[in-house]
Model the fold of this input.
Amino acid sequence: MIKVIVIGACGRMGGEVVRLISEQSDMQVVAGVEAAGHPMLGTPIGSGFVTAQLRDVIDRADVIVDFSVTDAVLENIRICQELGKPFITGVTGFSETQRQRLQKAGSIIPVVVAPNFSLGVAVLTRLAKETARLLGKNYNIHIIETHHRRKRDAPSGTARLLCEVLQKEVQDKPIEISSIRTGDVVGEHTVIFGGPGERIELCHKAESRTAFAAGVVTAIRWIVKQKPGFYSMADILASV
Done:
């Protein structure tokens, strides 16, 4: 049985991860973590309770999953380093300095950092990379991402990842990103390759957060078998 602590367990994404873990026969949530003062502190979750202190419950877990905020992630991963616990996060908006700290943690524990845990998005990224390799230097590339109006960062972490992957294939050729924030859209990403008299559009639309939570469950099963390292969904996709 894989024992999991979910940080941000009462949020939209964390709650969906907790729900999906509860349906698995090989893992369980042993505690949830939320910010001090959160109204759900002390309430039951999985086989444990919601607490404000990761350090108080971390000994119970095999894996830590973090859907909190950037500053909290850096403190949480430091605790995981101290105690040798594998760490997964889907938080976005890290600065380059913060990302380097996450990468450094990967020299001590297994770390998965993914702006999007959807296996479909991992496939989209691979297809977009191959398309850019074949056509990108002669075609214009544009990324359009749409999310709900409450999403804080723009462009999305997924759009930034797509741009980073594509930029390696086309070098200095500019790649434009358009961000739309509207309604309750879970997440849509489209990569457009425009050329003479034609265009190719690669698109992924998330219908619910279950797509992301399912990827987290896959990542949990995967990370417990890994050596220390800094991993992405591309690494997980390669082995599923």
User: Anything to note?
Assistant: The mean pLDDT is 95.
